Every structure is written in structure tokens, then in C-alpha cells.
Amino acid sequence: MTTSTGYIVGYARVSTQHQNLERQLDALEAMGAQKVFVDKVTGRTMDRPGWEQCRSHLRPGDTLVVDALDRLGRSMIEVVQTLTDLTNDGVTVRDRGDRVLSTSDPMGKALVSIMAALAEMEVDLKAERAAAAREAARVRGRQTGRPRAHTADVAASALAMRESGATVAEVCKEFGIPRSTFYRYAKAAAA
């Protein structure tokens, strides 16, 4: 399926490898995307392989469809610049609400700027809430982040075994720890 002047190209992005793209892909399919480019990388950088492929694929007359404006980037400046570049190249951008996102006129530029600012604010608020939750957990003595693979006793025993003459390979085999973990324990103990 093509538009009257070009193809419908989709772009989807999630911030980490652990997040799922299915909802966005379903939305892009419903919007008629014939080819979809994806990234599993933070939007805080424009160095995204899927975006670079998408951008080089787009031609004047094509329509880029995205689930939401914040999929193009996380900062207002980046999103507005990206939309301006696409508009100047003759590419139409639509979101899931079937809104045409354009910076070609003052009203469109204002609307896109407001939407991008709100998307950036939402990202910042989520980060603040997550940091506050981690701090609250830390204050209560709860583990935050990835749990430790070994206890402090294992680390102490591994270091003691090494000090008694065992090789690093023997220590790692005995305790089932990678060499990098052993060296991290040794560095922490030395500090």
C-alpha cells in the first residue's frame, strides 16, 4: 500500500533491550506501515541504528508514522529539529492519533514544540519518581537495582583463599565467580 505520493514507513523505539515493541508495532501496522524500523536504545541519543536506517530510507512524498512523538527523541530540541528536517525533505509525519506533525507553519511549530516539551517533561518526571523510589528503598535498607550475585562472606572467603596462595583461576572455580567479579572484590577490599 502506498499513499498518493509515497510509502508509509514506521519507526518504533523502546529504551532498553528488556522492553517490548509489540504495542508500537501493532499501532504502526494499523496505521498502514509497509516497512518498519526499530531501535531498542534510549532516545536521549540520536545515535540509533534503526533511526539512521529509517532516515536514509525516507524519500520526498513518504509518510513516517510513529506511535507517539517521543519515539523520535527525548528532548524537545531534538524532536522539533527532526520534524523540521523531515518536513523540509518532503516527508509527512503522523502519530497514532492520525495527527500530522509538521513544523512548516507557525501553528504547527508551536503545537509540535508544546507536544515535545510535554513528552520531555514526562520522561524527566518518570526519572525523578524512579530516583525517589530508589532512595526511599535505600533508606529502608532494601536492595535497589540488580541483586548481588554473592554475599560479602563469599567475597571475603574468595579473597582469603587467594591470599593463602591459590591462583585466581582456582578461586574463581571454587566459588563459581567470574574473574572480573573477583578483581572487583579485590579492588574494593584494597580501597
Description:
The chain folds into two domains: 115 residues, 3-Layer(aba) Sandwich (Rossmann fold); 39 residues. The protein is built from seven helices and four strands, in the order βαβαβαβαααα. The N and C termini lie far apart (63 Å).
Question: What's the short story on this structure?
Answer:
It contains 7 helices and 4 strands; from the N terminus they run βαβαβαβαααα.
How would you describe this structure in keywords?
191 residues; alpha/beta; Rossmann fold; 2 domains; 4-stranded parallel β-sheet; 4 strands; 51% helix
Strand order of the largest sheet: 2-1-3-4
Number of strands: 4
Q: How far apart are the termini?
A: 63 Å
Strand composition percent: 5-15%
Topology:
Elements: E1 8-14, H1 22-30, E2 35-40, H2 49-57, E3 63-66, H3 76-88, E4 92-94, H4 106-139, H5 152-163, H6 168-175, H7 179-190
Parallel strand pairs: 1-2, 1-3, 3-4
Helix pairs in contact: 3-4, 5-6
